[in-house]
Amino acid sequence: MRVRRKPWATEELAQNPRVIQDPAAHRGHWQEVFDVKAPLYLEIGCGKGRFLIQTAQKEPDKNFLGMERDETVAATAARHLPEGVTNLRLLHANAMNVTDYFAPGEISRIYLNFSDPWPKKKWEKRRLTYRDFLVQYAQLLTPDGAIFFKTDNPILFESSLNEFCAMDWRLSAITFDLHHSPWNEENIQTEYEEKFSAKGQKIFRLEARKR
Question: Is 116 a catalytic residue?
Fold first, then answer.
């Protein structure tokens, strides 16, 4: 769904000290933007930031980055950042250029939560779990790094399973009904997840690691 642009969004992103203005300039040096050196977790498509904020609060011993391509959505997330959460930063950027922003082995975990499903076959190369993206993620992740993926879209989930397997990733914690699975106890819901599950839609989840 396209978000209507807000006139205050550009200024919010430019003036908020926890929004990274030039992510490419920090490539290989992301630990320097945080108060404490810690494993770096990245959410691609962080939306309004609910999942990222709650996860950062729950795990203060990790550093978190939220990447969001939509200006208004990124600015809304910036406005919602609690003052006391010091292990979280945002960047207004497109995942198409993710290797421009991070050095090999710099990220310990990537979250892909309810990414745009691009449901038509002709759009499959735009999906964030398409093999071209997986090649990039493999470069950026630490040797023991992982991708945590959630979606409500069965077409995207099936496609993602095929892509991970084709690229020889090791899969685990796979479920076709997250909220009735052993992994739900630790699950933090996104805004979309809460809305979809309230309608009775099942949530799909997996973890993927490089072999």
Answer: yes
Sheet holding 88-92, edge to edge: 19-20, 88-92, 63-68, 40-44, 107-113, 141-151, 204-210, 169-175
What pLDDT is stored for residue 105 in this prediction? 97
Q: How confident is the model at residue 189 (pLDDT cuts 50, 70, 90)?
A: very high
Three-state secondary structure call for residue 144: strand
Read off φ and ψ for residue 98, nearest 5 degrees.
-60, -35
- How long, in residues, is the chain? 211
Q: What is the pTM of this model?
A: 0.95
Selected catalytic residue, list 61, 116, 152, 168: 116
- Tens-place pLDDT, residues 133-181: 999 999 999 999 999 999 999 999 999 999 999 999 999 999 999 999 9
Q: Strand ranges (DSSP E) for 23-133?
A: 40-44, 63-68, 88-92, 107-113
Residue located via tokens 């993710």: 98
Separation of alpha carbons 29 and 8, rounded Å: 30
